[in-house]
């Protein structure tokens, strides 16, 4: 699959804030992201589970990475780090809580920490649930969010190391970002997520329209990424566990959002669509 580049629309208002984001498909359905800060020319990589497709993309563009950003310790997100670090000597940035299980970490960050990538200010959110140490990176000026396996287009990550309460809190934190914030998540799961989403939010017209768009995109072999916070807030059932329509649709009217979220997550775990 060919990689595709998107220029942030933030660049139309603030030229210095632009980051080019290149999607690099890996394995069956992972996305690795290669970033280039327009102002400084610095190049970063997010979640390189595999080195080979990243090296091919960098070679093709003549780019040399200075930074690697890691959202969590799963091998399909860090498996290429050792080879990339040996080859390019980038600074590897990841979660302080995962320092014991992410080899090659240079900079360990946690909730509320900030770092810099070229001219970009980068803010870290602690988002436990999929894993206990999971973090997300928000590039403020470009308004681009890299949530790893916490938030997907129309979905969220499985709860391998966290509780529904933790994951709901993590998602609410990300949901609070502004509507135009672009979301670059760790996997292309959107089509199967859409098939599930309509079963728990059947009256949502925006969701139905989006499900049709997604089916058409995938039919053409195109990525469904990036999504935006605004689109997810309106259509992603995992962000809508406090919406009365969703609560009623899953048979839990008036229940707490945490309880409704847990029900939706459990149904998805058993969904065969
Ligand atoms: Zn994962």
Automatic annotation (TrEMBL):
<feature type="binding site">
    <location>
        <position position="130"/>
    </location>
    <ligand>
        <name>Zn(2+) 1</name>
    </ligand>
</feature>
<dbReference type="InterPro" id="IPR017782">
    <property type="entry name" value="Hydroxyacylglutathione_Hdrlase"/>
</dbReference>
<dbReference type="Pfam" id="PF16123">
    <property type="entry name" value="HAGH_C"/>
</dbReference>
<keyword id="KW-0378">Hydrolase</keyword>
<feature type="binding site">
    <location>
        <position position="74"/>
    </location>
    <ligand>
        <name>Zn(2+) 1</name>
    </ligand>
</feature>
<protein>
    <recommendedName>
        <fullName>Hydroxyacylglutathione hydrolase</fullName>
        <ecNumber>3.1.2.6</ecNumber>
    </recommendedName>
</protein>
<dbReference type="GO" id="GO:0046872">
    <property type="term" value="F:metal ion binding"/>
</dbReference>
<comment type="similarity">
    <text>Belongs to the metallo-beta-lactamase superfamily. Glyoxalase II family.</text>
</comment>
<dbReference type="GO" id="GO:0019243">
    <property type="term" value="P:methylglyoxal catabolic process to D-lactate via S-lactoyl-glutathione"/>
</dbReference>
<dbReference type="Pfam" id="PF00753">
    <property type="entry name" value="Lactamase_B"/>
</dbReference>
<dbReference type="GO" id="GO:0004416">
    <property type="term" value="F:hydroxyacylglutathione hydrolase activity"/>
</dbReference>
<feature type="domain" description="Metallo-beta-lactamase">
    <location>
        <begin position="29"/>
        <end position="187"/>
    </location>
</feature>
<comment type="function">
    <text>Thiolesterase that catalyzes the hydrolysis of S-D-lactoyl-glutathione to form glutathione and D-lactic acid.</text>
</comment>
<dbReference type="InterPro" id="IPR001279">
    <property type="entry name" value="Metallo-B-lactamas"/>
</dbReference>
<dbReference type="InterPro" id="IPR035680">
    <property type="entry name" value="Clx_II_MBL"/>
</dbReference>
<keyword id="KW-0479">Metal-binding</keyword>
<feature type="binding site">
    <location>
        <position position="149"/>
    </location>
    <ligand>
        <name>Zn(2+) 2</name>
    </ligand>
</feature>
<dbReference type="InterPro" id="IPR050110">
    <property type="entry name" value="Glyoxalase_II_hydrolase"/>
</dbReference>
<comment type="pathway">
    <text>Secondary metabolite metabolism; methylglyoxal degradation; (R)-lactate from methylglyoxal: step 2/2.</text>
</comment>
<keyword id="KW-0862">Zinc</keyword>
<feature type="binding site">
    <location>
        <position position="76"/>
    </location>
    <ligand>
        <name>Zn(2+) 2</name>
    </ligand>
</feature>
<feature type="binding site">
    <location>
        <position position="77"/>
    </location>
    <ligand>
        <name>Zn(2+) 2</name>
    </ligand>
</feature>
<feature type="binding site">
    <location>
        <position position="72"/>
    </location>
    <ligand>
        <name>Zn(2+) 1</name>
    </ligand>
</feature>
<comment type="subunit">
    <text>Monomer.</text>
</comment>
<feature type="binding site">
    <location>
        <position position="187"/>
    </location>
    <ligand>
        <name>Zn(2+) 2</name>
    </ligand>
</feature>
<dbReference type="InterPro" id="IPR036866">
    <property type="entry name" value="RibonucZ/Hydroxyglut_hydro"/>
</dbReference>
<dbReference type="InterPro" id="IPR032282">
    <property type="entry name" value="HAGH_C"/>
</dbReference>
<feature type="binding site">
    <location>
        <position position="149"/>
    </location>
    <ligand>
        <name>Zn(2+) 1</name>
    </ligand>
</feature>
């Amino acid at each position: 699959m060919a990689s595709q580049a998107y220029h942030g629309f933030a660049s139309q208002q603030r030229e210095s804030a632009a980051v080019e984001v290149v999607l690099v498909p890996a394995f069956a359905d992972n996305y690795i992201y290669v970033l280039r800060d327009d102002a400084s020319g610095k190049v970063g990589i997010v979640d390189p589970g595999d080195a080979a497709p990243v090296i091919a993309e960098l070679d093709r563009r003549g780019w040399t990475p200075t930074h690697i950003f890691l959202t969590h310790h799963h091998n399909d997100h860090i498996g290429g780090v050792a080879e990339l670090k040996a080859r390019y000597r980038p600074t590897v940035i990841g979660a302080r809580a995962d320092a014991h299980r992410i080899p090659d970490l240079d900079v360990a960050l946690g909730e509320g920490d900030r770092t810099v990538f070229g001219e970009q200010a980068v803010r870290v959110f602690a988002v436990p649930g999929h894993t206990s140490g999971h973090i997300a990176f928000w590039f403020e000026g470009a308004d681009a969010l890299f949530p790893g396996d916490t938030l997907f287009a129309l979905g969220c990550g499985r709860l391998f190391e966290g509780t529904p309460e933790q994951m709901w809190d993590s998602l609410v934190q990300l949901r609070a970002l502004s509507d135009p914030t672009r979301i670059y998540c760790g996997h292309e799961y959107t089509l199967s997520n859409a098939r599930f989403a309509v079963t728990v939010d059947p009256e949502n017209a925006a969701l139905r329209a989006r499900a049709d768009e997604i089916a058409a995109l995938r039919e053409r072999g195109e990525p469904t990424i990036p999504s935006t916070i605004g689109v997810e807030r309106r259509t992603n059932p995992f962000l809508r566990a406090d919406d009365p329509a969703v609560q009623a649709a899953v048979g839990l009217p008036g229940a707490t959002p945490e309880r409704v979220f847990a029900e939706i997550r459990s149904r998805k775990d058993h969904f065969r669509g």
